[in-house]
Each structure stands twice: as structure tokens, then as C-alpha cells.
């Protein structure tokens, strides 16, 4: 049977952990009473005759009211808080001696009252927040339903004119005197990530009938006005449709749409009717985006309401269990008295959350699932894939295959002397080895990411919420290990075959196409359109890479800059990829001229540019975040990546011209960049080195129990950050090719990044927990504006 403590900690909402009942502290206080009681019982083993008679009479209901006897033990007072927050505060008064250690009993009830007051206050604040969201969403739904009804009416009427065959829209009747409001631009302050998640998850677009004819809304109480941030009136309120336009395609389409609408409205304004009315259209595409936003907001609201239900149930169980333990230790009947107070308290007696949850279900089933409850529950309560034992079996199988093939490859490479210095087989090291090292670094990084997921789950870090991953594109650590072992088995097998053919006497010209085909197969699998090989995760990866490459044009979310940080540790892999692409695209593999890509200035400069690209992308993300959020810390972070680019530039220049001057500059720039990076790692990314922390030079809250792990991690990060010293020292292993040494140092940087990842997400999780953020705030499309606006 699982202990309640483990059950409680396993089911609570991680971001709200501090708001739950501190069950462990209550157990500690109860343990003090228990220890003192045991010591007293040892001294007084014999019970007096009078005490025995009294206890016997007390058990008989004929000689007194048992409930009256209990009520005299404690009395719980309920009063308003002095802060004027209209919240009840509970305070327990001991009417008789409960335990031998009265001070310990008082301390227990003070802590118990504080926990009850904390739970009530938090529940009330979250309930208020979700009720406000629900009220706002209800208004948004009403507006959306009206507009959808307009499209349905449009299809029913079957109207069609040549004026609007180019676009599906609805026309609204407005006054010509109010046309000046239409030219105002929309504020771009909504989050792109929420809408993109909905689109990437494959949610269906609005199921309203397609038609090319605008319709007129002649209702007096529904006067609509504009699109793309212009004001329209609905239900007696001035509103705006706000769709996130923070990616290039939406921005450009919005600009062209505004120009088109202005031309149409200017031409139609000259044709105002006798009543001064004019037609203005609202695009069906914008309405479809608005529906997706409301759908996502309902999903997040429902998730938050379920979290609050879990919060109430777990806290109720915690109070019940700790009171049972108290009665068992002291021999008193406190449970019925105090539990009655807990049951009548606000967090347990309020039913507003349950009512709102039922309403959200009804809205979703009726308007987004076509009255299909099962379909609605797939969105509102997505089920995570069950972990299969077959996955574990194949991980073991592929691991064994990889180890055997790698051992065979190492033996053949040793016998042929492929990795020795001044070997005659330089051609192999220049052509096939970059493919092997590239895949090695890539899948080492992937393996470490699987280890990160395993550790995050053990530490109850909600990485899927931080990265905003849906249930369909969230990879479990077993999935990551399966992908990693299967891929590395295939790579080791192909490279073993390639090297064996060379050892048997086949020429490089005959077998050189094999590494290129291996790379091509992996690229085809990445973009494979069928729903196999984790399609949703593959396409999400492609989307993130696109966001990184065009980082100044896209709004930056956590997953984007986290992935960009990973690329900063994969510069050797990117340089190998650029060289291999040049080698096969230019046809050098056919002429066996492996030095072509290094001789031609264009390709040589491109290889150097690849070294700067990850830092450039990350710097542009910092610039974009500063532009969106206005926080100067992003500019300071940008300076870190600029210093890294300058250090990389001096290294490139030193490789061309090995002089004392360039060497001094490399040491100076790399030292500055390293100090900058270490400060940001420890203070900003990991949140450590806090002077007034309860844990010396760490932070107040730690997910790992052993503090020494954090000190060791800081030292390890410092040592691995100093890998650039190899550029100055030119250290290498005896009788081993310099490319193998370079791969070893690159692998150390990948290991450092995998180690860095855990503490980065730990700090992010603690920041979310500090602000009790457990659900996303989805932007809503319809915004009310004042008459002055």
C-alpha cells in the first residue's frame, strides 16, 4: 500500500506546491507530541483506579453526552481577517489538556490553523481568477456565435455577387460618419505561441459553410465594424478583433489585407445609401483564427479548473489523515470537531468551480465538438500514451546492436590504422569521418536530452508546460532513448559496412556514396509526411528550427531560445554538416577532391560564417525579446552572445595567422566571454550565487536534496567552459589524429550543455511555482475599446 505522503506529493500540482497543505511539517509537529508521550508513558506505566473508572464512565452514553464531552476539548473560532480581505481566519483554542506536552499541542494547532487559512485564501484567489476568465470567455463566445450565425445565414440566403468572389467574408452596415475610426492600426501585444500551438496540434478550422458572398447584418442591436484591429460594435460595445501577427507570413498578409480593405471601403464609401449606411467586411479567415484562440482559451481554463478540483480534494484528504494520526497519538477525539470546520470552510464548501467546469464542458461540446462529448473530452482531457514494454525491449535490443557494431567498427579501424597520425588513409578522415562525428555529436545530445527528461520527471519539473508541448508532440524519455539507440545502431552498422568494404580492397570511388546516402535518408525521415516515426514531434522540431533561423521575425518563446542554446553547443556539428553538404553537392565525392571546399574562398568563408550563426540567432532572439518586453536584461544577455562571436572571430583569425598578437587577443577575448558566460550561467540561468540565501551561495529553494551536487555542478561547468584553452595549448593525444581530439572536446561541450539543461529548467520551474503559474494565459480575439480609442 502506497503511503499517503508519497501519494500526496505525486498528485499535487507542482507549480502550486507551496500553496498545498504542508503535510510534512504537520507530521514533524505531531512527531514531537508522539515522542514526548512515549517518554511519559514509560515513567507512568500503572494507571490509577480512579482514572480507569472515569474513562469507563466516559465511554457509556448513559452517563453523559459524548459529543458534549468532545466539544470541550477544543473550540475553533472563525473571524474575519484584519487585512479587510473578507476572508475567514480560523483559530483553535485548547479547552483542556490534550497531550502531555501542551506547548507542542498548541504549536501543532497553530500550524494546522495556518495551513487551513492558507488553503482557503489561495483557493479563493484562484477561484476568482478562473471565474473572471470564464466570464470573459462567455462574452467572447457570444460574439463568436453571432458572427458564425451570420455566416450560416449567408449560406441559407444563397446570396452571390461579383463584388466579393475573391474573399469569404461578412458585410456589416455602419455609418459613413464613423469611417475615420477605421484607419487606426492595431497594437501587436498578443502572444504568438498560443495560436501557433493550436495550429501545430492540427486542430480543425471553423466548420462554417464556405461561400463567396458577403451578407448584410441589418439588426439594430448588432452593428459590426472592421477587421485587423479596427473597431466594430456588437451587443452595444465597441470591440476589436485582435489576431496575433507576430510572424512574417501573418504580418505581410495583414498589411496586404489592410490595403485591400482600405481600397474597397474607400470606393464603397462614395456609394452610401440614403440612410448613410456603408458595408464593411469581416474576413472568414480572421474569424476562424478567433475561434481557434477561444478554443485554446477554453482548454486552458478547463485544465485550470481541474487543477483547482485536485487542489481541494488533496487538501481535504491531507487534513483528514493528519487529524486521524493526531487522534491515534493523543487518544483524543479531535477529528470530528476539526473536520467539521474544514468541511464548512470556503475551499470545500464553494461549488462555483464545479459549476463553471460543467459550463465549459457544455460550451465546448456544443460549439467546438458538434455535440460529440467523446471528441470534446479528447481536447479537454487528453490522455497520455501508455508506456509500452515493447519500447523497453527495443531499447535494449538496439543498445546491444549498437555496442556490437561499434566494437566491430573500432576493431576494423584499429587494424587498418584509420585514426593514426600521418596515416595514408587521410582521405577517409576528410570525407567519411565528418559524417560519423556529426551523427555522434547529434545523438549524444539527444541521449542527454532523454536523461534530462528522466531527471525532470523525477524532480517533478513540469517541462511540457514550460516548453508548451501538447500531449501529441511530447516525447517521453523512453521514446527519446528508442530514437537514439535505433539511429545510432543504423549509423554504426552503415559505417562498419563502409569501413569493411574499404578494408577488403574496394576503392573510395566505389563506396564513397554510402555516407552521403546515410545523411540523405535521415533528412527524408525528418520531413516524411506520413504519420509514423513521431510525425508531430518531427514537424514541431522543423517549426522551431524555422523560428530560430528567422528569429528576428518571430516572437520568441521558451522552446525557441532553449533550442537555440543547444545549437550554440553544436558548432562543430554544424561545420561538419556544411562541409559534407559542400562535398556532395559540388560533386567532389566523384572526383575525390576533398580539398575543394577548403580551397574555394566562397565555401571557406561560408564555413567560418557557420561558426557565428548560432550565436547570431541567439543574439537576435534577445533583441526581439527586448523589443517585445522592454526588459534591459535581454540586452545584457545579447552582449553575452556578441562577446562569444568576437571570441570565435579571433580564434578564426588566429588559425589563419598564428602570431603572438593574435594569440594574446584570443586569450583576452575568450577570457572575457568565459567570465560573462559563467556569470550568466550561475546567476541568471540557474538562479544561484544568492548572497542572502538560506543555502549558502545557492538559492532558497532547491529541487535536489544534496547541496553538494550544486557546488560540484558549478565547478564542472567552470572546467568545461575552459575547453577553448585547447586552441592555445594545441594539446592532442599521442598517435591519434587531431580530428579525434576535436571530436572529444566537442563531446565535452555537448555534455556540459546537457548538464546545464537540468538546472536551467529547474530555475524556470521554480519561477513559475513562485508565481503559481500552472496554466497558460491564452490571448482572446475580441477586445473592448473606449469611445476615445
From TrEMBL:
User: Which residue windows are transmembrane per the record?
Assistant: 391-412, 432-456, 477-501, 513-534, 660-679, 709-729
Record's keyword annotation contains Transmembrane: yes
Can you supply a Gene Ontology BP term from the record? phosphate ion transport
By its UniProt entry, which CDD domains does this protein fall under? SPX_PHO1_like
Keywords tagged on the record: Membrane, Phosphate transport, Transmembrane, Transmembrane helix, Transport
Q: Name one Pfam family in it.
A: SPX
According to the record, the residues making up region (Disordered) are 201-220
Q: Could you tell me where this protein is found in the cell?
A: Endomembrane system
Q: For this UniProt entry, what's an example GO CC term?
A: membrane
Sequence ranges assigned to domain EXS in this UniProt record: 598-789
Membrane topology designation:
Multi-pass membrane protein
**InterPro entries from the UniProt entry:** EXS_C, PHO1, PHO1_SPX, SPX_dom
Q: Mainly resides where?
A: membrane
Q: Domain named SPX: which ranges?
A: 2-340
Q: Which family does it belong to?
A: Belongs to the SYG1 (TC 2.A.94) family.
Its protein name is: SPX domain-containing protein
The record lists the organism as Microthlaspi erraticum
**Where is the organism placed in the taxonomic lineage, from the top?**
Eukaryota, Viridiplantae, Streptophyta, Embryophyta, Tracheophyta
Amino acid at each position: 500500500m502506497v503511503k499517503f505522503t508519497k501519494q500526496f506529493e505525486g498528485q499535487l500540482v507542482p507549480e502550486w506546491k507551496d500553496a498545498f497543505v504542508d503535510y510534512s511539517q504537520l507530521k514533524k509537529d505531531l512527531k514531537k507530541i508522539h515522542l514526548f508521550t512515549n517518554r511519559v508513558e514509560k515513567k507512568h506505566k500503572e494507571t490509577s483506579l480512579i482514572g480507569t473508572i472515569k474513562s469507563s464512565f466516559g465511554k457509556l452514553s448513559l452517563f453523559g453526552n459524548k459529543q458534549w464531552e468532545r466539544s470541550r476539548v477544543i473550540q475553533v473560532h472563525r473571524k474575519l481577517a484584519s487585512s479587510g480581505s473578507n476572508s475567514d481566519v480560523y483559530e483553535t483554542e485548547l479547552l483542556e489538556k490534550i497531550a502531555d506536552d501542551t506547548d507542542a499541542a498548541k504549536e501543532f494547532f497553530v500550524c494546522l490553523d495556518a495551513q487551513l487559512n492558507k488553503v482557503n485564501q489561495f483557493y479563493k484567489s484562484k477561484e476568482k481568477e478562473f471565474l473572471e476568465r470564464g466570464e470573459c470567455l462567455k462574452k467572447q463566445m457570444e460574439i463568436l456565435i453571432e458572427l458564425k450565425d451570420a455566416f450560416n445565414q449567408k449560406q441559407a440566403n444563397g446570396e452571390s455577387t461579383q463584388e466579393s468572389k475573391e474573399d469569404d467574408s461578412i458585410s456589416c452596415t455602419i455609418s459613413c460618419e464613423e469611417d475615420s475610426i477605421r484607419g487606426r492600426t492595431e497594437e501587436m501585444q498578443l502572444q504568438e505561441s498560443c495560436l501557433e500551438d493550436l495550429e501545430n496540434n492540427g486542430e480543425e478550422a471553423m466548420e462554417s459553410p464556405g461561400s463567396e458572398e458577403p451578407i448584410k447584418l441589418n439588426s439594430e442591436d448588432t452593428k459590426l465594424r472592421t477587421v485587423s484591429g479596427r473597431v466594430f460594435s456588437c451587443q452595444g460595445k465597441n470591440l476589436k478583433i485582435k489576431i496575433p501577427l507576430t510572424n512574417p507570413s501573418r504580418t505581410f498578409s495583414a498589411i496586404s489585407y489592410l490595403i485591400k480593405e482600405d481600397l474597397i471601403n474607400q470606393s464603397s464609401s462614395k456609394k452610401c445609401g440614403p440612410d448613410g449606411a456603408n458595408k464593411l467586411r469581416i474576413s472568414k479567415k480572421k474569424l476562424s483564427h478567433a475561434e481557434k484562440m477561444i478554443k485554446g482559451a477554453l482548454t486552458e481554463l478547463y485544465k485550470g479548473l481541474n487543477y483547482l478540483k485536485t487542489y481541494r480534494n488533496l487538501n481535504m484528504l491531507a487534513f483528514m489523515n493528519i487529524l486521524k494520526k493526531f487522534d491515534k497519538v493523543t487518544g483524543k477525539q479531535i477529528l470530528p470537531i476539526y473536520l467539521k470546520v474544514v468541511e464548512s470552510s470556503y475551499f470545500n464548501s464553494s461549488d462555483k468551480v464545479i459549476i463553471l467546469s460543467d459550463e465549459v464542458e457544455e460550451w465546448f461540446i456544443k460549439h467546438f465538438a458538434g455535440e460529440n462529448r467523446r471528441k470534446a473530452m479528447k481536447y479537454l482531457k487528453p490522455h497520455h500514451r501508455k508506456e509500452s514494454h515493447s519500447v523497453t525491449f527495443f531499447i535494449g535490443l538496439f543498445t546491444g546492436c549498437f555496442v556490437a557494431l561499434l566494437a566491430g567498427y573500432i576493431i576494423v579501424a584499429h587494424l587498418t590504422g584509420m585514426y593514426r597520425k600521418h596515416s595514408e588513409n587521410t582521405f577517409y578522415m576528410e570525407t567519411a569521418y565528418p559524417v560519423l562525428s556529426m551523427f555522434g555529436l547529434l545523438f549524444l545530445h539527444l541521449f542527454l536530452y532523454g536523461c534530462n527528461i528522466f531527471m525532470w520527471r523525477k524532480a517533478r519539473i513540469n517541462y511540457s508546460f514550460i516548453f508548451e508541448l501538447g500531449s501529441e508532440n511530447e516525447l517521453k524519455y523512453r521514446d527519446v532513448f528508442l530514437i537514439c539507440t535505433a539511429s545510432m545502431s543504423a549509423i554504426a552498422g552503415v559505417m562498419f559496412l563502409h569501413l569493411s568494404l574499404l578494408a577488403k580492397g574496394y576503392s573510395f570511388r566505389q563506396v564513397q556514396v554510402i555516407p552521403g546516402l546515410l545523411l540523405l535518408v535521415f533528412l527524408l525521415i525528418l520531413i516524411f509526411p506520413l504519420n509514423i516515426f513521431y510525425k508531430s514531434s518531427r514537424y514541431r522540431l522543423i517549426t522551431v528550427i524555422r523560428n530560430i533561423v528567422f528569429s528576428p521575425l518571430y516572437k520568441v518563446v521558451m522552446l525557441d531560445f532553449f533550442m537555440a542554446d543547444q545549437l550554440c553547443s553544436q558548432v562543430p556539428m554544424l561545420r561538419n554538416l556544411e562541409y559534407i553538404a559542400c562535398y556532395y553537392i559540388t560533386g567532389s565525392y566523384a572526383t575525390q577532391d576533398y580539398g575543394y571546399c577548403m580551397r574555394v574562398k566562397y565555401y571557406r568563408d561560408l564555413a567560418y560564417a557557420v561558426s557565428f550563426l548560432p550565436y547570431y540567432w541567439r543574439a537576435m532572439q534577445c533583441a526581439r525579446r527586448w523589443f517585445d518586453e522592454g526588459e534591459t536584461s535581454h540586452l545584457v544577455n545579447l552582449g553575452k552572445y556578441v562577446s562569444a562571436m568576437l571570441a570565435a572571430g579571433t580564434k578564426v583569425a588566429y588559425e589563419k595567422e598564428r602570431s603572438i598578437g593574435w594569440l594574446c587577443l584570443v586569450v583576452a577575448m575568450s577570457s572575457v566571454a568565459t567570465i560573462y558566460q559563467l556569470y550568466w550561467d550561475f546567476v541568471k540561468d540557474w538562479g544561484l550565487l544568492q548572497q542572502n540565501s538560506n543555502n549558502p551561495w545557492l538559492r532558497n529553494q532547491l529541487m535536489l536534496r544534496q547541496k553538494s551536487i550544486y557546488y560540484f555542478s558549478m565547478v564542472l561547468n567552470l572546467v568545461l567552459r575552459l575547453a577553448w584553452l585547447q586552441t592555445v595549448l594545441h594539446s592532442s593525444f599521442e598517435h591519434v589524429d587531431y580530428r579525434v581530439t576535436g571530436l572529444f572536446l566537442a563531446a565535452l561541450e555537448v555534455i556540459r550543455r546537457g548538464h546545464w539543461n537540468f538546472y536551467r529548467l529547474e530555475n524556470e520551474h521554480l519561477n513559475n511555482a513562485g508565481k503559481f503559474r500552472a496554466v497558460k494565459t491564452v490571448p482572446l480575439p475580441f477586445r473592448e475599446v473606449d469611445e476615445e480609442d
